[in-house]
Amino acid sequence: MDHFSFAWNTIKKNPGAWILAHLAYVLVPFGTLLFAVNYCRMVHNAVQNDQAPQLGDLFNTDNLGNDIVTVLVVGLVGFVAALLCVLPALYIMPILVFVNFLAAENKITGVDAVKACFAWGKSQWVHCVVTMIVIQFMCSLTIYACGAGLLVITAFMHLAQYNWFMQHREDVYAAAAAEGIGA
Q1: What is residue 134's DSSP assignment?
Q2: Do 18 and 155 form a contact (C-beta atoms < 8 A)?
Q3: What's the maximum distance between 2 C-alpha atoms anywhere in the chain?
Q4: pLDDT 10s per residue in the chain (183 long)?
Q5: 3-state secondary structure of 124
């Protein structure tokens, strides 16, 4: 999977900046809720400009309302699916993997990002599950190393997901347009 080589090559250019950015993201109280979409926005900006991630991008609150709605909708969908005997969550959550990246582009609303992921993901479920299992397995390896590489591997995971998103981005928008989402 070239997602991993992309992630590794990106991190090794500026490892300190990537670790610091991820550390700021996870250590800020409610950071993963408030800034999940901004983290994706920061990753996008850093990769597109071929530079180290800028911490200011993480704490930019220009779209905070829409970003929080996005995260809450995904959480609510996952919660309701989990209440329905867990199995629906195993179907739904893998296909929502791109929601934050879609919302980070500010082309569609957070709710439309969820709908767009459903439109694309329902025909890509196996691909989503296999890719997420591989990415999560890579991250779980740090647990066996006493968490020593946790900050690197989780930043690595986000970059691998970003690369995966960029490879399927046009397909997601095409599936959304075919269903009249975000029009």
Answers
A1: H
A2: yes
A3: 48
A4: 688 889 889 999 998 899 889 888 888 877 778 889 999 999 999 999 999 999 889 888 888 889 999 999 998 998 888 888 777 778 888 888 899 999 999 999 999 999 999 999 988 989 888 888 887 787 777 666 666 577 777 788 889 899 999 999 999 999 999 999 875
A5: coil
